[in-house]
Amino acid sequence: MLPAVVKLCCGISYPHIRNIAGLQRTAMAVIGQEITHLQQWGQIQNHVRQQTGLNHNEAKPEDIKPVPAKEDQLCVRHGQEAMRKALSILEEKEGWKFEVAESNGDAICSKVMPGGRKVFRLEAVLDASVDELYNLLFVRVEEMHQWNPSIQQIKVLKRIGPQTVVTHEVSTGTAGNVIGQRDFLSVRRSCKQKSSVYLGGAAVQLESFPPQAGFVRAENGPSCIVIQALDDDSTKSRFTWLLNMDAKGWLPKSVVNQALPRAQLDFTRHLRKRLSLS
Ligand SMILES: CC(C)CCC[C@@H](C)[C@H]1CC[C@H]2[C@@H]3CC=C4C[C@@H](O)CC[C@]4(C)[C@H]3CC[C@]12C
Questions:
Q1: What is the pLDDT, as a whole number, of residue 7?
Q2: Of the candidates 275, 265, 263, which has an alpha carbon nearest to the alpha carbon of residue 135?
Q3: I need a surface site. Which of 23, 60, 175, 222 has the fewest CB within 10 A?
């Protein structure tokens, strides 16, 4: 119905729109983008509702079907767009400020984005091949709670081809984590090349999986992990992680901005421990 009405309006106004100029033209373009956006989200929401049967909060693995429906493309595009944005943040040369470094060489820088949110970039060298890390961080992402106590659960709600997943993540609210428990709903994409892997993602909003009672739904802005083989030694990888998170809830910015780099260092420590076992 909405698309039909929009088309009708466009038809009626087309001769006038052709004659507009300047700011009015910009405004038209923005309105157009908004409509496309609204329409896309409507489709994604309906589709995920149908495919996962998620009117309750538990998705059983057998409910998740890899249906290559047309609407899936929208999730894929959202993931691609998140990856593109995250990589372009990483590529920015200016404005990074040193945050912390550990004696093992792990280092975190931060940058304030337009709008005031701080993003964090962790750089580390890990004793693992690109494939091993891809396997642990993307293929077997649901097992992450087994080696990372900051994570209570990660559930793949939907797989769209080999590269895209829709996930629900729950962090733990342990003593070390001053922010407390959060849940996230994200689209995540992987892009695997011979000597590097890109894992990117961002939050999505789905009516079928609304914020749950007792949880604060945090939001991942465009974020990514880049894993690159070190030239000389393919058993070691460079690990670069852009964390871009709106933790939500009523917390002072300064508290959040201290907890996030800490969470990155903790994550990396647990990842190293896990790698030393295999
Ligand atoms: C400080 C509080 C709010 C949050 C602490 C937990 C943070 C560090 C946790 C919660 C959810 C987690 C993410 C969940 C899923 C993935 C996808 C995977 O392919 C790479 C790791 C990544 C991206 C995790 C990174 C760490 C993460 C962001």
A1: 47
A2: 275
A3: 175
CATH 3.30.530.20 fits 78-277, yes or no: yes
DSSP letter for each residue of 213-254: TT-EE-EE-SEEEEEEEETTEEEEEEEEEEE-EE--SS--HH
Name all contacts of 107-111 with Cβ < 8 Å and 24+ positions apart. 108/261, 108/264, 108/265, 110/257, 110/261
Name residues contacting ligand 1 (CB within 6 A).
137-138, 141, 150-151, 154, 169, 171, 177, 179, 182, 184, 188, 199, 218, 225, 247, 259-260, 263, 267
Q: What is the mean pLDDT of each run of 10 residues along the chain (278 residues)?
A: 44 49 45 37 43 41 48 87 98 97 96 96 97 96 96 94 94 80 95 94 84 88 97 87 94 93 96 94
Using most ligand atoms within 8 A of CB, pick from 133, 150, 155 the residue to mutate for ligand 1. Answer: 150
* Under 8 Å between Cβ of 40 and 134: no
Strands 233-243 and 118-126: antiparallel
pTM of this prediction exceeds 0.90: no
Residue 55 CA, ligand 1 centroid: distance in Å = 25
Distance from the CA of 72 to the center of ligand 1, in angstroms? 24
Q: For the chain, which residues make up each domain, given as ranges?
A: 2-56, 78-277
Give the pLDDT confidence score for residue 247 in this predicted structure: 93
CA of residue 192 to ligand 1 center, whole Å:
20
Interface predicted TM-score (ipTM) of this complex, two decimals: 0.95
- Look up residue 193 and give its two tokens: 């090349």
What is the structure's pLDDT at 263?
94
pLDDT at 231: 74
